[in-house]
Structures are given as structure tokens and as C-alpha cells.
Amino acid sequence: xxxxxxxxxxxxxxxxxxxxxxxxxGNLKLVQAVNDRSSHVRPTPTGGGVGFVTASALASGFAVxxxxxxxxxxxxxxxxxxxxxxxxxxxxxxxGTRFAIQGLALAILVWQQPIEMLGLPLAGLSPIVVGLPxxxxxxxxxxxxxxxxxxxxxxxxxxxxxxxASFGLVMLGxxxxxxxxxxxxxxSLAAALAAFLVFNxxxxxxxxxxxxxxxxxxxxxxxxxxxxxxxxxxLPIWAILGATLIVDTSVTLITRMSAGERWLAGHRQHAxxxxxxxxxGHRTVTLLYGAVVLLWLVPxxxxxxxxxxxLWPCVVVAYLPLLIAAVSLKAGxxxx
Length: 336
Description:
By secondary structure, the protein is mostly helical. Helices cover 71% and strands 1% of the residues. It is built from 13 helices and two strands. Helix 3 (69-91) runs antiparallel to helix 4 (95-110) and helix 6 runs parallel beside helix 12. The N and C termini lie far apart (53 Å).
């Protein structure tokens, strides 16, 4: 019963705060102007992620109370990442500053985890050798999530599906974990995102901004580490669930770098951006990406979860068609 109350409160809190941000966005300098890199056609309020960030932070108190320092560290670091994102929304910070602070936060987060429990093929190596690739993966995940927040509802709906799918896999594999406050946090964040989508669904009245996208990515990464270290879900399964985001951004980045373009410069060359122009709007693309998660990635993640002997072949099977699709859609290329 308590988890239902937590989810309802998280949703209502998110709606209230998001509506408040929407009302005063102009005064707070949180309006995103239209430019040649935009996928929207009118100035739109941003920073709406503050609603689900604060709702999630309140819900995380249950996990902190039950599990102490590890959850406290995750909560504090995630809020620091959100504050950095909010500053970037208002002031447009330099990329080097963002990466340095994000990297430090991820390093602190990763090196407090029992690395040997993360389900990666790195047994016998030192914590530093193992931890560094995990930090780099986290840095890429936090920023690619931000890159994918370019059309209405896409990033929020993908995060919602990842959280619900991972929660479902834990419940099916470890029913006794139902009382774990970490899972309450996961489900309450999903409820907050569902509430945020009331405002962010195409056509969006507000964007989540860097404050929302970076916080969301950081918390999902932290929850993935906790779940992997607890023996609930291996990290590669989380990578399967997030494959639409990972593939689109990775192919786009590699293609642009190979063409000699400045990879940090703004652009409209993601596969999802090409699709939104060719399919006539954001809603169809957001629904399409959601369908890929539900109909392709969740079944494969479930198979890998319950048949760990074929975990890595499942990763390959999940990614290969998405890689082919991203290349076919000319991700990273300039398309008229």
C-alpha cells in the first residue's frame, strides 16, 4: 500500500511543480528559442524536469533510510548533476566543465560499488581497471540521454519504459525484493515521469531540459549499478533496455566524427530527427521508439535475464538490427 501512496504523491508533486515552472518560465529565463538545430517550431518553456527531479529526490528518502550511505551518495550526486543541468539550461556552461563534474560524480558513484558483482567479463582485474570503463560508460550514457531529448516525449517515455521493464524483471526473478525501498524509488520515478508526460507528450508544452535529462540518466545508471550489485539485473540487460538511445546517439556521433564534423556542435542529424521530419511529426517517432522497446528489447532482455548463459548473444541480437536501421536512416549525416 505504501508504494501506491508514494507513486501517487510523486505524480501529483510532479504535476504541481511542472505547472509552476510552466507558469514562470519566462521570469526564470527557461524558454528555449527556435534555431536551425531545433526540432520544434516555437519558443517553448524548458526546465520542466525540476518537477520529477524533486519528486524523485523526496522518494529516494525511503531508500536512504533503509540502505544508508550508498543511497545517500546516489541521491546527493544526482541532485548535484541536476543542479549542474539547471545551470546549463540558464547559463549554457562550457562542455568541458560539464564533463569534468559529471565524470567526478560518476567516479564517486562507481567506486563505492562492489565492482565484481556488476556482471561484466572483467573478473580478476583491479578495481581501477574495471571501474574506469564503467565510469566512461556512465559519462556517455548521461550525455547521450541529453542528446536524445530532442523531440517531444521521446526521452521521458524511453526512461519510463526502461524503469518499468527493469522493475518487472526484478519482480519476476526476485519476488522477495518487493519490499526493497530501492525498487520503490524506481517505481515512484516512473510515476513522476508518467505525470511529466502529461506536459511533454507531443505537442509538448514544456521540455525537461538538461536539469531533467542528466538527472534522469544519472539516477537510472545508479539504479542499474545497485540492481547489478544486488544480483537482481546484470548491467548488460540494462544496456539492452536502453539500446534505442545508445545506438542512435553512438552511430550519429561516430558518423559525424568520421566526417570531420565538430561532434559537440548542435545538429539535427540523429536518426530520430530524420524520422520526425519524414514522418511528419514527433508523436509517430516517439511511439515508434516505444514500440521497439516493448516489442523487441523487453522480450530479448527477459530472455537474457532468465537464461544468463546466452546473455551476450542476446546483446548482439538486440543491437544488430538497430545498428542496421540507424545506418539506413543516415544517422549522423546531413539529410535534406
